[in-house]
Write a structure and sequence with these properties.
- The complex is a heterodimer of chains A (215) and B (216).
- Chain A has helices at residues 48-57, 184-189, and strands at 2-6, 12-17, 22-25, 30-33, 38-43, 64-69, 72-77, 82-89, 94-98, 102-106, 111-116, 128-134, 137-144, 147-152, 157-160, 165-169, 173-179, 192-198, 201-206.
- By secondary structure, chain A is mainly β.
- Chain A has one domain: Double-stranded beta-helix (4-Layer Sandwich), CATH 3.60.160.
- In chain B, strand 11 and strand 12 (130-142) form a beta hairpin.
- In chain B, the strands form 4 sheets. In chain B, strands 5-6-3-10-13-8 form a 6-stranded antiparallel beta sheet, with no helix packed on it.
- The two termini of chain B are 29 Å apart.
- Chain B has a domain at 2-151: Double-stranded beta-helix, CATH 3.60.160.
- In chain B, 38% of the residues are buried.
- The chains are: A mainly beta (215), B mainly beta (216).
- The interface between A and B is medium-sized, with 31 and 26 residues.
- Strand 15 of chain A pairs antiparallel with strand 4 of chain B, so a sheet runs across the interface.
């Protein structure tokens, strides 16, 4: 499988598939495909029935992914301003991708989802879901706005906004945290709900929160 | 502070803070910060904005001004993003120099900069049988210190002479200086179908530098 970024303000990715080669992506983000490319359904098998019910009922995440099988080309777009990154995962390399950012991945990459809990406070009562992809294989991601990459050392920490996280290595932990603005009741009530990422591993941030309007 | 722009289409701002150095930013526009950067709250009262002034601004309605800023203290790096496409500008204000920046566009500013929310222009529109007041809110910032702000779309800069004037849409004006006179004018359509249809515009007179942005 070959991945090519179609650059522009709102970029897309073009996947060229050989015979019987398959990729998967979120349903509804296909831009176009060659007629020989067939479309199927790939059920998300991650965490059992209760987890699937929570994902769909609370998170609004579908039960299945779309699966495209070659030969031919298929293009995907997330309909947003930003940058696309093509990555190739080494065997057993784990990458966690923020929900709504994966464009496509090779079918041999196992796909799971996991939940990052919120702070259980007003403003960040709920957390968010991330896609967990394990190598080997190729994948493409859409970062909203510009992508800022960094590598965290052992126990090195960076604090970021919830919408800023694009992807992280599986070895990087993500934890919701309140940053109180000050002492006293008012200072503690008005805290800043953030995500604390602790290394070691790679982290990529995006300059637009995809859940906020950004026209 | 040392501020750099990251990216082009939807830029973020990377601010490098020395030990003990403090900057103020609107709450919830932080993208990421190093673990050692401290965060606190700076209320408008602490910035010298009186409660009566703030309540007056709030009473007028649509101002985006909160009653506090988030304060970040170095050492370390902090990035901010307004989640919009546009240009970021870093402006070093000498002592005593004042700019008036359209509200909702400020990213961060040095602790040494004096801040005052204000109404830059006011006009009325007819809604049915009632006249409704509309306001152009602005952040008045006085040096010394660095301010960082972002436009929506591209920035067009003009330095108006004393006899010069430009006309912009009410959403187009991004920044003016206190020496500029900002007045509301009306663009009217003539003819049978256009009679009575008027829309507000801003007439900005010199002297002084102004900025206009291309987005809304």
């Amino acid at each position: 499988m070959e991945l090519e970024t179609l650059k522009g303000v709102v970029p897309a990715v073009l996947a060229t598939l050989g015979p019987q080669e398959s990729i998967y992506c979120e349903h509804g983000i296909m831009l176009y495909k060659d007629p020989p490319v067939t479309v199927g359904r790939k059920t998300i098998q991650s965490g059992g029935v209760l987890s699937a019910a929570k994902r769909t009922a609370v998170g609004g995440i579908p039960f299945f992914l779309a699966e495209y099988t070659g030969p031919g080309s298929v293009a995907f777009s997330r309909d947003g301003l930003g940058e696309i990154r093509d990555l190739e995962l080494a065997p057993n390399e784990v990458l966690d991708v923020a929900e709504g950012s994966l464009l496509c991945a090779e079918n041999r990459i196992p796909y799971e989802m996991f939940y990052v809990a919120g702070t259980n406070r007003v403003g960040r009562m709920l957390g968010f879901w991330m896609d967990r992809l394990t190598g080997p294989g190729k994948l493409a991601l859409h970062g909203y706005g510009n992508i800022i990459s960094m590598t965290l050392g052992e126990r090195e920490t960076v604090t970021c906004d919830y919408g800023a996280l694009l992807f992280k290595s599986g070895s990087v932990s993500a934890k919701s945290r309140n940053l109180p603005f000050g002492s006293g009741l008012l200072g503690k009530l008005e805290s800043y709900e953030v995500l604390e990422l602790t290394g070691p591993g790679k982290v990529a941030l995006q300059s637009i929160d995809p859940k906020k309007p950004h026209t | 502070m040392k501020a750099d722009t990251i990216g082009t289409i939807t830029p973020a701002v990377l601010v490098e803070l020395r030990p003990g150095e403090k900057i103020l930013a609107e709450h919830e526009i932080m993208l990421h910060m190093d673990g050692q950067v401290k965060i606190a709250r700076k209320t408008m009262k602490q910035l010298g904005v009186s409660r009566a002034h703030l309540m007056g601004m709030k009473a007028r309605g649509d101002t985006e001004d909160a009653y506090f800023f988030a304060e970040f203290e170095g050492p370390g790096n902090v990035t901010f993003s307004r989640d919009k496409g546009g240009e970021v500008r870093v402006l070093n204000l000498p002592a005593g120099q004042t700019v008036r920046l359209r509200s909702g566009h400020l990213i961060c500013f040095d602790e040494s900069v004096r801040y005052n929310p204000m109404v830059l222009a006011q006009w009325y529109i007819q809604k049915g049988n009632e006249r409704e007041a509309q306001y152009l809110f602005a952040d008045e910032l006085t040096g010394p210190g660095t301010i960082v702000f972002q436009s929506v779309g591209n920035i067009l800069s003009f330095n108006l002479a004393a006899t010069e004037a430009v006309r912009t849409s009410t959403v187009g004006l991004l920044m003016a200086s206190p020496s500029n006179v900002v007045q509301v004018g009306w663009l009217g359509a003539s003819g049978v179908f256009g009679g009575g249809m008027v829309s507000p515009v801003l007439d900005v007179r010199g002297p002084g530098p102004i900025m206009v942005h291309s987005g809304v």
